[in-house]
Amino acid sequence: MSCTFTARLCLGLTLSLWIPVLTGSLPKPILRVQPDSVVSRWTKVTFLCEETIGANEYRLYKDGKLYKTVTKNKQKPANKAEFSFSNVDLSNAGQYECSYSTQYKSSGYSDLLELVVTEDYWTPSLSAQASPVVTSGGYVTLQCESSQSYHRFILTVEGPQNLIWRQDSQYNYSTRKYHALFSVGPVTPNQRWICRCYSYDRNRPYVWSPPSESVELLVSGNLQKPTIKAEPSSVITSERAMTIWCQGNLDAEVYFLHNEKSQKTESTQTLQQPGNKGKFFIPSVTQQHAGQYRCYCYSSAGWSEPSDTLELVVTGIYEHYELRLSALPSTVVTAGGNMTLHCASHSHYDKFILMKEDKKFTNSLDTVYISSSRQYQALFIIGPTTPTHTGTFRCYGYYKNAPQLWSVPSDLQQILISGLSKKPSLLTHQGHILDPGMTLTLQCFSDINYDRFALHKVGGADIMQHSSQQTDTGFSMANFTLGYVSSSTGGQYRCYGAHNLSSEWSASSDPVDVLILIPGQLPITPSLLVKPNHTVHSGETVSLLCWSMDPVETFILSKEGSAQQPLRLKSKSHDQQSQAEFSMSAVTSHLSGTYRCYGAQDSSFYLLSSASSPVELTVSGTIESSTWSPKRPIPPIPTENQDHTTENLIRMGMAVVVLIVLSILATEAWRSHRQTHPAAGN
Predict the structure, then answer these.
(1) Residues sharing a CB contact under 8 Å with residue 544, sequence separation 6 or more, in sequence order
(2) What are the structural domains, with CATH classification, of the chain?
(3) PROSITE patterns attached here (predicted)?
C-alpha cells in the first residue's frame, strides 16, 4: 500500500513538472511570411517564427499538423527561425502556425497565418460601379466578375489594415458571368485605397485565381487642388503626341489622372522638376483618349481636392466632307462693326464649333439644313468687334453623342480688325493695267513707325503680312510681291499697319491706289477715236469714243503714264455697236498723251479685253490744272542712294545764268567791234 502511494506520489510530482512543458507558459511567437501571404505558384516563400526568450527549437505547423522543425543555429543567435520553400505549389497553400521551446518549456502556438497560392488562369476583373472617385467618409461599390464558375469572390485592400471582404458569387444571366458586389467604406483620406479581387472554390479556400487588375479609389480630400493643363493643346489631332501635366504642392508623392468618360485612371510616382509635377505622356492620341480629365495628388498628409476639369478633344475623326469657313461681309472689319463667320458642310453634323488659335472661341451651334445648297450650316455672329478678334479661325463638326470627337477642320480663315490709327499708303510700281505674265509688287508705306503691314484683296479670304523695313528718314514700308499676274490677281487691294505690342491694326489705305486691271481676258478688241481732232487747243472740248462691234458692257479708258485710275463708262448701243464716249472739256496740255481703251463685262469686273490701238492726243497752250495728271512718282521712301535732283537743277540754273552773262558780254564786244571798223574806214 505504501509502495503504491509512494509510486503515485512520485508520478504526480513528475507530471506536475512535465505538464508546463506541454501546455507552455512562454510568450507565444509571431509568425510572418515573406514576400506576402498571397503568392503565385513557383514563388520562393519564407516563414519567420520570432520570439523573445531564446529558444532551442522551432516548429512550423500546417493545418494543425507538424510540418517542419528547425533547431537553433548557435552561429545565428537571433531570436527567430526561417522556414523556406524555394518553389511553392498549390499543395503548400493552407493555414500555418508556429511554436518554440527552450530546454524546459514549450510555447503556445502563434496566431494562424494563411498562405494563399494563386493559379495561372481565369483572372477576374474588378471595376467601380459608377466611379472610383469617392468623397471622404463615403462608400463606393466595386464589382468583381469572372467567366469561370467560382463559388466565392474576395476583395482585398493594400495597406497595414489588411482589409478583406468575401462574397458568394452570383450568376448574371444578361452577361453570362459570375460576379459579386462589394461595398467599400467608409473611405478615409489619410491612406491609399488600392483594391484587387480574387475568386476561389469552397473546397480549396486557399487556392485562388490570379489577382484582377488593381482599382485605386480616388479620394476627394481637403488639401489644395492641383492644376492641370495639356501641351500643345487640349484640342489635338488624332495620332499626334501630347502631354498632360498635373502640379500640386511640393509634398506630393503620387499623381493620378482620371478620365471621367472611360473611368480609367493612370498614376505616376516619377515626378518632374521643377515644381514636383506629374507628367502623363500620350505618344499617339486615339479616340479612346477623348474625354474630361481631372487629376488628384496624394502625400503623407492625405488626398487633395480634385483639379478643375480638362476637356480633351480629338480632331480628324470624321472625313466625309470638308468643312468651309467664310467671313461675311469681309475678312477685314472695322473695329466696332459686326461680322458673321459661316461654317458649312455637305455632311450632316449635329453641331459646329468655332476655334480661334486652337482655343474654343464660342459655344457650339446646332446645324441647320439649307435645301437650296444641300448643305448644313451654322452662322457665328460676332460683334461689336474689337482688336482682340484679329486672328485665325477654324470650324469643326461633331455629333451630340460624342462631343469630344471632332471632324477634320476647315481651312484657316484670317480675320483682321482695323482701327483708327493713321492709314498707310499703297502703291503699285507697275501701273494699273498689267499684261498676264508680268510680276506685280505692291508697296505699303507710312510715316508712322509701324512694325508690320498687312495686304488684303477686297472680297478675298487671304491676308498677307510682312514685317516692315525702316528707312533712314523715318518711313516704314513693306513690299508685297504677288508674283506673276493671272486672272485671279485682278481686284481691289487695301493695306494696314500695326505695332508688334498691339493686336490693333490701322485704318485701311485708300483702295483707289491699287486697282489692278488685267487685259487680254475677253476675245474682243475695241477701237478708239478722237473727236474733233488729234490736235486741239487748250480750253477746247475733246471726246474719246471707244466702240466695238461685239457686245461690251463697260469700256475703260487709260492714259499711258498716268497715276490716276482709268476711267470707266457703261456702254450704250448705237447702230448695232457698243460704244462709250469719254468727254473732256476745257482741256489742258496735261491731257496730252497716248490713250487706249478696253472692254469689260460686269460679271468679270477686273478682266479686260485686248487694248485698242493707241491714239495720240496733243493739246497746245498754257499748262493749267486738269482732270488727268502726269504719272505720280513712287512715294518718298528715301534710300541710301538719295536723289540729288534739286541740287543738280540749282547747278544747271547757275550754269545757264553764266552762259547768258557770257553771251551778253560777247554781244557787246561784237557791237563795239563793228562800230570801231566803220570809224576806221572814214
Answers:
(1) 528, 529, 530, 531, 557, 581, 582, 584, 595, 597, 615, 617
(2) 30-118 (2.60.40.10), 125-219 (2.60.40.10), 221-315 (2.60.40.10), 319-416 (2.60.40.10), 422-517 (2.60.40.10), 527-620 (2.60.40.10)
(3) IG_LIKE
